[in-house]
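User: Hey, quick favor. My workstation is busy. Could you predict this chain's structure for me?
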Amino acid sequence: VQLQASGGGLVQAGGSLRLSCEASGVSFILRMGWFRQAPGKEREIVASIGSTVSSAIMADSVKGRFTISRDNAKNTVYLQMTNLKPEDTAVYYCAARRVRATNYPYWGQGTLVTVSS
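Assistant: No problem, here it is.
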């Protein structure tokens, strides 16, 4: 399984960005997640989604501002980020696991999101 993330960049506080993560080399349904790691902080999960929209789970810190979605036909998961805050600055990683697994063995490269105040 290969994951290719894209969409990071520099944005002012209050702005928006959309991250994308395309999975390839996979023939089974994956639960996909977005994680982030800010400088000097531990990695944290931001959102995850199974095969349906109703399966989405968002971290409290981003509820109401971020939305996770996926296009199963394209094997792609998106993270729409709105009303960005400086504290959202981090390297964002997409990850995937089998639906019944408990950890995420598949990781994409990180994409940097920088929110200026």
